[in-house]
Amino acid sequence: MELTENKELLEQYRERAKALVSQMSLEEKIFQTLFNAPAVERLGVKAYNWWNEALHGVARAGVATVFPQSIGLAATFDEDLIEKVADAISTEARGKFNLQQAKDDTDIYKGLTFWSPNVNIFRDPRWGRGHETFGEDPYLTSRMGVRFVKGIQGHDEKYLKAAACAKHLAAHSGPEGVRHGFNAAVGKQDLYETYLPAFKACVQEGRVEAVMGAYNRVNGVPCCANHELIEEIIRGEFGFEGHFVSDCGAIQDICDGHHIAATYKDAAAMAMENGCDLNCGKMFYFLKQAVEEGKVSEKRIDEAVERLFTTRIKLGVLDRKEENPFDRIPYTVVDSEPMRKLNEEAAARCVVLLKNEGGLLPLDLSRIKTIGVIGPNADSRRALVGNYEGTASHYWTVLEGIQDYVGDRARVMYSEGCHLYKDRTSGLAAANDRMSEVKGVCDCSDVVVVCLGLDASVEGEEGDANNEYGSGDKPDLNLPGLQEEVLKAACESGKPVILVLLSGSALAVDWAQDHVPAILQGWYPGACGGRAIAKLLFGDCCPEGKLPVTFYHRDDVLPDFEDYSMKGRTYRYMKQEALYPFGYGLSYTSFSYEKIYAEAASDHSETTDRCPDAAGSGCPAGKDAAVTIHALVKNTGTVSGAETVQVYVKIPGEDTPNAQLKGIRKVRLEAGGEKEVTIALPKEAFGLYDEEGHFHIHSGEALVYVGGQGPDARSAALTGQKVRCLTVSIAD
Asked: CA geometry: angle at 320 spanning 315 and 325, to 5°?
C-alpha cells in the first residue's frame, strides 16, 4: 500500500503534526507559513525553504539532468515515459538533498517540495509560459500531470520521495505583462470543462501534495484568496487534503495589483482565511497583527501550519535517517550515465515529424560528403533547455550532435545565419550580415539543415524572458527577425533542405510547409537534444512525437488574447482548418488499424458502424455505461517504430465541442509486427458540462474515432489516412 492510500498512517502523521504545532507560539507558527521557514531549535525543527522547482529536472541548484521541456514531454503522449522521467528527477532530487543536508545547506532550491507540474491549459499560442505546460488538451494534460506527480512523489508505503505541486490555480495562461492585476472572466462551463480537469485529476488520482494559486483573479476574486476555488472546489468537491501555496508575490498583488485589499495586512488575512497555507513572499509576516485585530483566527493559523508539517513528516525530514529509504540515495546518481541515456531517449521521443516529402528523411550518410548546418538555434544551448532549468555538465546542440554523429565521414559546415530576432548578429555590421555566408555554406553542401525557432529569452515568464515584445509573450506566430529570409535563401540554393524548429510553442510556418521538403519540431529538447535530433536525422531512431498543441496558419484567426472563453480556441472548439492539427505527427514507418470494434458495457448500449468511415461491429453489452475500444495495430513499414493510438469522442449537438481526446495508448512494434490494443472509456468520457458547471452523461448516440491522429480533415490530408469511426449508443 502506498503512503497516499494509507489512511491510518496519514492520520498518525496529522496527529503528530498537530502535537508539534501545539507547542509553538503564535509568532513561531506564523513564521512557518513563509516559504523560508526558520528553525525552531527548541523543538528540534530545522530551517526549511519550501521553494524548489523541477519542471523538467531539478532546477536552479547546480548540476542536474536537464530533460526536455514539459511541452516536449507532452508530445510523447506517453504516460509511462513521463512517470519514468519524473521518477528520475526525484531520484536526483533526493541525491542532491542528502548532500545539501549533510553540508547544512538549507537555502532556496534546496528542499524536497517541488512546485511542479504546471497543468495550466495552453489555450493561446502567444502565451510565453505555454512551454511549461503539457499542451492545450485537458485530457492529455491530466494524464501527463497525474503520472508526473506519481513519479515525483514515489510509491513508498511510508514516505513521499518528494512532494509535487499542481499549479497555477486557476485559468492562468497569459498575458504575462498584466498578470499581477488581471481578471480572467471565465464561465462555469469553461472552468469545469477546460481549466479544472487536470487539477481534479492530480488531486484525486495523483494525490498531489500541494496546489499553487495563480497571480490573476478569476471572476473578480484573486486566486490566492479565492474561497470558491480553494475551499469549495479543490478541497470540497475534489477532496484535496494537502497544503495550498501562493505564487511568488501573489498575495502582495491582492493589494498592489488587484487593489482588493487596502493594506498588506488585509491581503495576508484574506489569503489565509480563504485557504492559502503557505506564502511565497513576505505578506504572511503581517499575520500576527491580523490575528491580534481579529481578522484571522489562530485556529486557522494552526490548521495551515499543521498541513505544512504533515508534508514535512510525509517526506521523512523530521525522522532519523535510518528510517527513510530515500536518505540512502547517494549524490552520485546525479548526472549519471543512466540519467543521460534516459534524457537522450526522452529527447528523441519528443520530436514531431511535420513533413517528409519524397522520403528525404532519414538521410543516407554514405551519399553525403558535406552537410550545411545553418541558423541561430543550430548552436544554441539556450534553445535546448527552455526555462526553469538546471545546469547540465554537457550540452549537445544540434550542430554538435550532427558533428559528433558524422565524425570524419562527412564535413559539417556552419553558419549562424542571423540573430534569433535582431536584424544583425554584430552590432557594428549592416543588416543581414550573415547572408553571404549562408549562401556560401549552401553552395558547398549536399544537404542543408536549417535550425530556427525561439528560445526562452523571447517566450517565457514575465521577468525571465527579456524580449522586446511583451513580457515573455509572443506578438504573433511568425519566425522572428530574419529567420524566414535565411530559410528562403537555403531553399533557393536548390539543395535539399531540412528545417528543425526548436520552440516551446506553435509557429505559423506556412511558407516552410509549402517549400521545405522536411520539417521537424524539436521543442526545447534538453541537454542531449542535439544528439537525439542527429540520430533522428540519420535514421538511428524513428520519429514518434505527436503535437500537444494546434499549429495555426496565422494569429489573426485567434480570439483576443485576454478573452478566456474557449470559443474558437484549440482543436476542441476551433472552426477553421489548422496548419498542423493537435495529435498530428508523421513517422518513418507506417501503421494500419484492423478489427476495430467497441465493446459496450451497458445492457442497453449498442455499438454500430453507421458512421461513413466506420469499421468494426457491435459487441455484447456489459453492465456499466462504459465502452472498451479494441483495435489490431500493425507496423506495415520497413523499420521499427511507435504508434500513438488516439481515441476521440464526439457528442452530437450544435453547441457541443469538436471530437475530444479521451484515450491514448503507446504501441511499439517491429517492422511487420502487430498488437491488439484495448482502451477503456469510462462513462465520464461521454459527458459534458452545462453553462452552470453541472456534469451530464450523454444519453444516446455518440461518435468514437480511433486512429493515430485526430478525426479532422486536415490530418487526413497531411497523412493520407483517415481514422475509423464507430457510433456508440449510451443508455440512461
From this structure: 60
Q: What is the residue range of 640's domain?
A: 591-730
In percent, the amount of the chain with pLDDT more than 70 equals: 95
Alpha-carbon distance of 456 to 624, in angstroms, equals: 48
pLDDT of 465:
59
Domain with 450 in it: what CATH number?
3.40.50.1700
Q: Is 419 helix (H, G, I), strand (E, B) or coil?
A: coil
Amino acid in position 585? G
pLDDT for 468 equals 55
On the question of pLDDT at 498 being above 90, the answer is yes
**Cis bond upstream, residue 117 (ω within 30):** yes
Q: Are 520 and 500 in contact (CB under 8 A)?
A: yes
Cell numbers linked to 186: 471565465
Non-local (6+) Cβ contacts of 46 within 8 A are: 39, 106, 317
Residues 431-480 pLDDT 10s: 999 999 999 999 999 999 999 999 999 999 987 655 555 578 999 999 99
Would residue 199 count as lying in a domain? yes
Name the nearest CA neighbour of 129 among 376, 507, 463, 379. 463
Q: Is the pLDDT of residue 80 over 50?
A: yes
Secondary structure class of 562 (helix, strand, coil): coil
| 696 three-state secondary structure | strand
Q: Residue 455 in contact with residue 377, Cβ under 8 Å?
A: yes
Does this model's pTM top 0.70? My answer is: yes
Q: What is the pLDDT of residue 240?
A: 98
Residue appearing with cell numbers 485557504: 275
Which residues are tagged catalytic?
247, 459
The rounded distance, in Å, linking the Cα atoms of 509 and 622 is 48
**Are 113 and 90 in contact, with CB atoms under 8 Å apart?**
no
Number of separate domains in the chain: 3
Residue 464: its pLDDT value, please?
67
pLDDT at 662 > cutoff 90: yes
Alpha-carbon dihedral angle through residues 134, 135, 136, 142, given to the nearest 10 degrees:
-20
- Structure confidence at residue 609 as a pLDDT band (50, 70, 90): very low
Domain end (from 293, 326, 359)? 326
Distance CA 598, CA 628 (A): 6
Do both 321 and 346 map to the same domain? no
- Is residue 308 exposed (0-12), middle (13-18) or buried (19+ Cβ within 10 Å)? buried
For residue 548 the three cell numbers come to: 500537444
- Which residues in 67-207 belong to E strands, given as ranges? 165-169, 183-184
Q: Are residues 645 and 716 in the same domain?
A: yes
Contacts of 605 (CB under 8 A, 6+ apart): 621, 625, 627, 728, 729, 730, 731
Taking only the tens place, the pLDDT of each residue in 155-213 is 999 999 999 999 999 999 989 999 999 999 999 999 999 999 999 999 999 999 999 99
With H, G, I as helix, E, B as strand and everything else as coil, classify residue 310: helix
